[in-house]
Amino acid sequence: MILPILKGLALTLNRFFSKPITIQYPEEKMPPAKRWRGIQYFEKNERGTTKCVACGLCMAVCPSQCIYIETAEDEEGRRYPLTYELDASRCIFCGFCEEACPVNAIFLGKNYEWVEGDRTVYLMTTERLLEEKKLNP
Amino acid sequence: MQLLYLLIEIVVKCVVVFAGLMIVVAYLTWLERKVLGHIQIRYGPNRCGPFGLLQPFSDAVKAFFKEDLVPGDSDKTIFVLAPMISIIAAISMFAVIPFGNQFTIPGTDWVVKLRLADVDIGLLYIFGIASLGEFGIVLGGWASGNKYGLTGSLRAAAQMISYEVALGLSVVGVIILSQSLRLTEIVNLQAGGFWNWNIWYQPAAFVFFIICGLAEINRTPFDMPEAEAELACGFNIEYSSMKFALFFMAEYAHMVTMGAVAVTLFMGGWQPIIPQLSFIPGIVWFCGKLFIFLFFFIWQRGTFPRLRYDQIMKFGWKVLFELTLLNILITALIVSLRG
What we know:
The complex is a heterodimer of chains A (137) and B (339).
Chain A: H1 2-17, E1 40-42, H2 57-61, E2 67-73, E3 79-87, H3 96-100, E4 106-108, E5 123-124, H4 126-132
Antiparallel strand pairs in A: 1-4, 2-3, 3-5
Chain B: H1 2-39, H2 55-65, H3 76-92, E1 102-104, E2 111-113, H4 122-143, H5 147-170, H6 172-178, H7 183-188, H8 198-201, H9 203-216, H10 241-266, H11 282-301, H12 309-338
Antiparallel strand pairs in B: 1-2
Helix pairs in contact in B: 1-10, 1-11, 2-10, 3-4, 3-10, 4-5, 5-9, 5-12, 6-12, 9-10, 9-12, 10-11
């Protein structure tokens, strides 16, 4: 009975002098996993606008129906999204939009830190999605 | 004039001891969280100031600004009185602890004895006040008008009373050896090196004293009144704000006092380890030994799982009670045989 007590005390003392394994979150961060699915971003084409051609496949495949697209054509006959809205507060980060995209325009990034006090801010537009690209080099 | 000086000395000593005790209590909460954190391979508080050293103050500020609730079903007078009884008992126990020898104020012949009161029934006083402190816990839980509080109180009453028996019996061996209840006398008999400390003459009593002391101050292996798992904080379930903080402080002050009593009775109080080191002031030795005890109290909390209520009672009455009696018997036999 005495020996296990002393063994336990020795173990905790050993732990006391070992270095903590805590990651000090705001200063240090865990690198996200290789296949981590975070906030989406848009790839740019050679003209500097979004690669998206507004085919609507992501809208169709999205299980939580958080993508809304209005299609338009420019003067050269190229299709582009007039409005592209992705409600990040409803998104479940399944990655189906990335899989469905025929032109590799939308990707799920590595960013997982996004907190707002107002849920309307989570409605990501084309500009916001292009901006998110900066966090995913 | 002499009387005025004496009065000033008493007041100054009271203030200094009280302030010192409060600082120790405040930083004991910090130390506890820090040590437990490192035992669990994490950091503990480290955001509030360097190494989290300002954490006790931020906790105090938080406690001040919490809402002070008094439940409608409670016995209001007793509900308010209970934390006060608890903290007063915990602090006033420190009055008889000798934390140093004496020194002369330079330039005068005024001798300051480093203890608040040197009464000849010091040990009896400590046990009396310690039992008084239990009233705070028992009355607090009972007056809350809450079934968990009441259960906690019942457990507190049962556990603390049964362990107080063994606690009282475990120090009788020391009393037999030193033939005095005066704490300064007990310390003086342990002078002249660590081989004279009572811990070598009463090792069993020392172990029993530590175990019963832990049960007496409701530390974790014996934290039945404050069973977080099954009673949701037990006796202090209805307490908030500064009333809760008073209970909290009382618990830690109790812990300091229990450590101080253990140092005084078994580890030679302010006496240095070897006589050659006596140039270091006694208060440093006392605080150093006290720190070892406080660290042990926290360390064992991080090590041992909680006991079940019936296991605690069984252990108290069927094991500790008999063993402490046996210890007294053997000590008395040896002392009387040696003449």
